[in-house]
Amino acid sequence: MKKIMLVFGTRPEAIKVAPLVKEFQKYPEQFELVTCVTGQHREMLDQVLQLFDIKPDYDLNIMKQGQDLVEVSARILLGMRDVLVQAKPDIVLVHGDTTTSTITALSAFYQQIPVGHIEAGLRTHNIYSPWPEEMNRQLTGRMASYHFSPTLLSQQNLLREGIRNDNIIVTGNTGIDALYMIVDKIKNDSSLGAKLSKELRIAGYETDRLSPSSARRLVLITGHRRENFGEGFIRICKAINFLSERYAMVDFVYPMHLNPNVRAPIQTVFGRKRPSNLFFIEPLEYLSFVYLMEKSFMVLTDSGGIQEEAPSLGKPVLVMRDITERLESLKAGTVRLVGTDYEKITSEVSKLLDDSEHYQEMSKAISPYGDGKACERVVSQISNWIR
Ligand code: UD1
Ligand code: UDP
């Protein structure tokens, strides 16, 4: 019996490891699974834990309002030391490129416990974009013994860095497992649509506005990247303001990240005066978010995970970043980079709204990030690697 410790701390990590928790739990005779959350996020993490019914064995509960990277890192490093000394796992699994994953990998390294890195090998090769995520994933890659790459491209990045092929497996992204799980849930439960519409109404958006007879369309927006804080977000807000005035028949819905640096520019640009077709709402529970993404016409975001999910649902994505580590959908033409440039955002959104041929080209459903079976591959490979 091998003791596997899965550590995560933010909303996207939780979404992407939730199906992995379920997969490990299918084999209780083979694995003792221990889950630990750092609590780098709180409300946004708890929403996911509740949805997937995950009750962590350890919770470092480190989140404090607006704390900087140093404090987040120091609190995780100290907290994980105690957890690892007590739990003594055979392997620690971390996910992606957050402070939680890198500092946990460092903690495990200090205890000489092997680390497995899920979603390994994504690269922009620019350490300031995204910041600090690009450095986080490079460092985690150096510390990890085993690498679960979502795509061939990410495997190649690792091979170029000298990592042995024997220690890498291409699995697909576990986030696509989570997405398919939720899409199926929505499809198979006829009462769920009404429930989610009600939740969205409470959150501040009325999905009835999108009834076919209304001909209204939905542009779904999210943003949270640190490198966009300040002027970048101000330009994004000004662009959204222009677009919402120009397209009265389009609803612009922006579930706001809880980071105060994301909310301040919205207040600065809009104050209390908001166009009636522009909705700033609280962060949505994953189920409601996927439901809304399915209803959307297109997505405008700087998120990593949404760049993977939206193309699988056939939704064009404009990415408010200058560079991306997710090149697969960029190459397939379903994603375009617009940075935080006012002109680019307004012209590319307008083009998608006005030019149906262009929209058709960008809205073909592709799934370069996975087939929904990534977790099966992770779990079966772990048994080969740690005997
Ligand atoms: C973090 C990750 C980023 C990931 C993102 C996903 C790092 C350095 N950044 O960025 O890679 O893409 O999560 O969303 O690891 N807050 C709350 N409640 C919450 C969550 C956040 O109030 O549930 C507020 C707090 O004031 C917190 C702040 O947001 O201090 C920033 O959170 P933090 O985890 O440091 O950074 P994110 O921008 O969320
Ligand atoms: N998401 C969510 N509710 C929201 C916004 C996003 O559940 O209000 C989900 C989204 O579907 C994706 C993940 O959160 O799975 C992305 O999180 P985020 O953009 O914060 O982080 P990133 O992927 O950039 O690390």
Q: Mind explaining what this structure looks like?
A:
The chain has 16 helices and 13 strands. The protein is α/β, with parallel strands linked by helices and 387 residues long. The strands form 2 sheets. Strands 3-2-1-4-5-6-7 form a 7-stranded parallel sheet, sandwiched between helices. Helix 1 (11-25) packs across helix 16 (374-385), helix 9 packs across helix 10 (260-270) and helix 9 packs parallel to helix 14. The longest helix has 19 residues, at 69-87. It binds uridine-diphosphate-N-acetylglucosamine and uridine-5'-diphosphate. Uridine-5'-diphosphate binds next to helix 1, helix 11 and helix 12.
Mean pLDDT: 96
Helical residues, percent: 40-55%
SS-derived structural category: alpha/beta
Question: Count of helical segments?
Answer: 16
Report the uncertain regions. none
Give the tally of β-strands. 13
- Indicate the overall shape: globular
Instruction: Give a quick account of the main beta sheet: strands, pairing sense, barrel closure.
Output: 7 strands, parallel
In brief, what are we looking at here?
With 387 residues, the protein is α/β, with parallel strands linked by helices. The N and C termini lie close together (9 Å).
